[in-house]
Design brief:
By secondary structure, the protein is an all-beta fold. It contains no helices and 5 strands. The structure holds zinc ion.
Length: 57
């Protein structure tokens, strides 16, 4: 039994494994620890990440 199930999810950019749990909520931002890309969690069923683009450049 695990009290914090990990959701296996790969970074869409570099393929690194992201450490996500069921505590994540829609709208949360997830940072990839490998490439630094940011993603917004847009759905839980199924678990869906969308690229979070900062267009202030
Ligand atoms: Zn990445």
């Amino acid at each position: 039994m695990s009290n914090s199930p990990v959701i296996a999810q790969e970074c869409p950019d570099c393929g690194a494994q992201l450490d996500l749990t069921e505590a994540e909520e829609v709208g949360d931002l997830v940072d990839c620890p490998n490439c630094g890309a940011a993603f917004e969690l847009v759905a839980l069923q199924p678990f869906t990440l969308a690229p979070f683009v900062d267009e202030e450049k």
